[in-house]
Design brief:
Elements lengths: L2 H23 L7 E2 L1 E8 L7 E6 L5 E4 L4 E4 L8 E6 L3 H9 L6 H12 L1 E2 L9 E2 L7 E10 L4 E11 L5 E6 L52 H31 L2
Parallel strand pairs: 2-9
Antiparallel strand pairs: 1-8, 2-5, 3-4, 3-6, 6-7, 9-10, 10-11
Keywords: Signal
């Protein structure tokens, strides 16, 4: 067999092997799976007239929370969840935000305008996002109590229940017996430090990550930031470029020399 032809065959085989390696490197390893979420908020006394409770950081940007009832919700991907007391007159704007929600767009700014006019009732809530595929936990249910007088608002974490698929309580984490002070500019929960930053300079309204062991922030993989994998992909790419050039050279030699 001629040298150029052998070079082409060898280079093509190595290219295929390296391309397969890159594909395998980009496949996320098996890890944690999402769980469902719900929240039950009671009010100490009553909400001030003309005020409603809003949760930010959900899948559609925000959700109105009817107090005294169980409210299912879906977490936003890169945000932290927070409770606000807002004017009832802003409800049509909230609905418009939900219908057009895209993080980092005018909908985000419109939501910030609503929450800036309102009162923060909580810091960022710590919420378990995922669990192992074999875990019996399928839903995380939060219980909070709030009190507000129109000039201030505070919330108290009563407990967090972890439920089975049939709704049975598997375990329960007690909350606080005290009314914590609400920070107007809270820091992101430490457990979510690896999560991507919110899309604007406004304070993010978003979710925290799991208190249970092995939980990862939404949007990250089981390998953390996967920096090592990124370097491996760079090496693969360099070899692919080099071998591609060799194969191209060999084929040109074949075409010219008639091997």
């Amino acid at each position: 067999m001629s040298h150029p032809r052998a070079l082409c065959i060898l280079g093509t085989c190595v290219l295929v092997a390296l391309a397969s390696g890159v594909a395998r490197a980009n496949v996320a390893p098996p890890g944690l799976v999402p769980v469902k979420h719900s929240i039950h908020v009671d009010v100490e006394g009553a909400l001030p007239p003309g005020k409603v409770l809003l949760m930010t950081g959900t899948f559609k940007g925000a959700a109105v929370i009817d107090t005294g009832t169980l409210v299912p919700f879906i977490l936003g991907r890169y945000e932290f969840v927070r409770l606000y007391l807002i004017d009832a007159g802003d409800l049509p704007k909230v609905e418009a935000i939900r219908e057009n929600w895209v993080p980092g767009t005018s909908a985000y700014e419109a939501r910030s305008a609503i929450t800036d006019r309102g009162l923060p009732c909580s810091d960022f809530l710590k919420i378990q996002r995922r669990d192992t595929p074999t875990s019996p936990v399928k839903e995380v249910r939060l219980f909070y109590t709030i009190k507000a007088d129109g000039k201030s608002c505070a919330s108290k974490h009563v407990r967090t229940d972890r439920l089975s698929e049939l709704g049975a309580v598997i375990d329960s984490e007690p909350g606080s017996t005290q009314w914590p002070a609400v920070d107007a500019q809270p820091s992101a929960p430490a457990a979510d430090a690896a999560a991507p930053p919110p899309p604007s300079s406004s304070p993010p309204a978003a979710s925290a990550v799991a208190p249970n062991r092995g939980s990862l922030p939404e949007g990250t993989s089981a390998c953390g930031t996967c920096a090592a994998g990124a370097h491996a992909d760079d090496r693969y790419a360099a070899w692919l470029v080099l071998l591609g050039a060799l194969v191209w050279t060999g084929r040109r030699a074949l075409a010219r020399g008639g091997f």
